[in-house]
Amino acid sequence: MAELALQAALDRKALEPVLLDVGALCSYADYILIVSARSDRQVGAIFDAVHSALKQAGHRCLGSEGKDSGQWALLDYGEVIVHIFHHPTREFYDLESLWVDAEHVDIDVPDEARVRPDEPIY
User: Which residues in the chain belong to E strands, given as ranges?
Assistant: First the structure.
């Protein structure tokens, strides 16, 4: 399920995906997927793509938040929680640092999904 969510996000040009294995650290999820978007509209597009892909695969969303804010959105599928941030908001909240003890799952991140240091993201 996490890989399907990741692919759907990447299909909508998500940036800097990180997949954390949190199964040994918490009781409410096995994985947390964190991705960035270049704009508030892209946050919504990634949200819709992930939700649609998982729904078509037969997975039921247990809850969602923030889609209309444009800065951050969350999809909760029980096993997998997906966080979609407008990139500057992600940098501000630094969610990954809260899960410093979580294992990073090795995922293939295409070059176009990387933020270059000289590339402004507003």
Answer: 15-21, 31-37, 63-65, 72-76, 80-86, 103-104
Phi, psi of 6 (to 5 degrees): -60, -45
Structural domains in the chain? 2-106 (3.30.460.10)
3-state secondary structure of 37: strand
Which residues in the chain show pLDDT less than 70?
Answer: 119-122
The answer for 87, left when phi > 0, alpha when psi is -120 to 50, beta otherwise, is: alpha
Please give the Cα distance from 105 to 24 (Å, whole number): 13
**What is the dihedral angle through the alpha carbons of 107, 108, 111, 115, rounded to the nearest 10 degrees?**
-10
